[in-house]
Design goal:
With 136 residues, the chain is mostly beta strands. It has one domain. The protein has 1 helix and 10 strands; from the N terminus they run ββββββαββββ. It starts with 12 loop residues before the first strand and ends with a strand. 19% of the residues are buried. This is DUF3277 domain-containing protein.
Length: 136
C-alpha cells in the first residue's frame, strides 16, 4: 500500500473577468463555481418505468469573494453597473488541473457593502450563460 500526497496552493488559482486578472481575495473561499441545474431529471411511473429528461440549460453561477481593499473591487462594480457581457474563467494550475467558466457572463449587481472597524468582504455573483467545466 502506498501513501499518496497531493498538494494544493491557492496561489495557483486564477480568475479572469473580461481578460482582467482578479486580485484581493478574502480569506477562506476565493471563488465558488456552480452549474445552476442538474444535467437531467427523472420521473418514475406507478409501475416503475423510468423517464429521463435531459436538461439543455447552460447557466452557471460563479461567486467571487474579495476584501473591501481589493484592487478589483471597482472593476467588478463597474461591470455590474454597465451590464457588460464578458468572459470569465477560473483556472486551477494545481496538481489537479481545472478550468471553469464561459465566454458570456454578467455581474448580477454591485457588491453589498459593510463598513466596520475591520476589513470586510465583498461578494460578486456572475451569471454565466454558457457555463462549462473543461476537463483537466
Amino acid at each position: 500500500m502506498s501513501n499518496e500526497v497531493h498538494e494544493y496552493d491557492a496561489m495557483n488559482v486564477t480568475t479572469t473577468v473580461g481578460g482582467i486578472v482578479i486580485t484581493g481575495y478574502s480569506d477562506g473561499s476565493l471563488v465558488e463555481c456552480s452549474q445552476d441545474n442538474d444535467n437531467f431529471t427523472t420521473k418514475v411511473s406507478a409501475q416503475g418505468d423510468v423517464g429521463v429528461a435531459n436538461s439543455n440549460n447552460p447557466l452557471g453561477t460563479i461567486k467571487i469573494m474579495l476584501t473591501q481593499t481589493s484592487p478589483s473591487l471597482s472593476y467588478l462594480n463597474q461591470l455590474a453597473n454597465s451590464k457588460a457581457t464578458v468572459p470569465i474563467w477560473v483556472t486551477s494550475n494545481n496538481e489537479m488541473k481545472e478550468k471553469i467558466g464561459g465566454t458570456k457572463a454578467k455581474v448580477t449587481k454591485p457588491a453589498d457593502a459593510k463598513f466596520s472597524n475591520n476589513i470586510e468582504d465583498r461578494e460578486f455573483d456572475l451569471k454565466v450563460f454558457d457555463y462549462t467545466v473543461v476537463p483537466g
